[in-house]
Each structure stands twice: as C-alpha cells, then as structure tokens.
C-alpha cells in the first residue's frame, strides 16, 4: 500500500512538473509573439513617418508629377 502511494505521488509530481513547464513555455511564447508584433508595428510606423516627411518636402509641381503616375488618364 505504501509503495502504491509513493508511485502515485511520484506520478503526480511528474505531471505537475510537466504541466508547469508547459504553462511557463506557453507564457514565454506569448510574450515573444507580442514583442515581435510590437516591433513590426514600430517598423511600419517609422516607415510611414519617413514617407510622410518625404511627401511634405515635395513642392507643388513635384507633388503633381508624382501623383500623375498614379492617376488614370480620362
């Protein structure tokens, strides 16, 4: 009877350790994914800001010329 209890405790401890490791890994993976997503968003925001700065620096004639490439001919 005592041997069975020891085996059950050992199996229970092992299962708790495995589940604990799984939850910690899951949490760390979620943190890593959130960090990567925030870095991607930051890169997109920086690129958008650079494009806006370039557009602001264009003169009216340069702006018309640049937009002319995107407009359809009637």
Describe how the helices and strands are arranged.
Elements: H1 2-57, H2 60-68
Gist?
This protein has 74 residues and is mainly α. Helix content is 88%, strand content 0%. The N and C termini lie far apart (92 Å).
Q: Please provide the ordered H/E string of secondary-structure elements.
A: HH
By secondary-structure content and strand pairing, the structural class works out as: mainly alpha
Query: What general form does the structure show?
Result: rod-shaped
**Helicity range:** over 70%
Count of the domains = 1
- The whole-number mean of residue pLDDT values reads 91
How many strands in all? Answer: 0
Radius of gyration: 29 Å
Strand content: under 5%
Number of helices: 2
Largest sheet: none
Q: In angstroms, what separates the terminal alpha carbons?
A: 92 Å
Low confidence ranges: none
């Amino acid at each position: 009877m005592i041997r069975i209890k020891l085996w059950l405790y050992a199996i229970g401890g092992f299962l708790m350790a495995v589940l604990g490791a799984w939850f910690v890994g899951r949490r760390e993976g979620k943190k890593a994914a959130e960090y990567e997503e925030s870095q991607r968003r930051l890169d997109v925001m920086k690129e958008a800001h650079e494009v806006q700065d370039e557009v602001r620096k264009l003169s009216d004639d340069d702006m018309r010329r640049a937009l002319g490439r995107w407009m359809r001919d009637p």
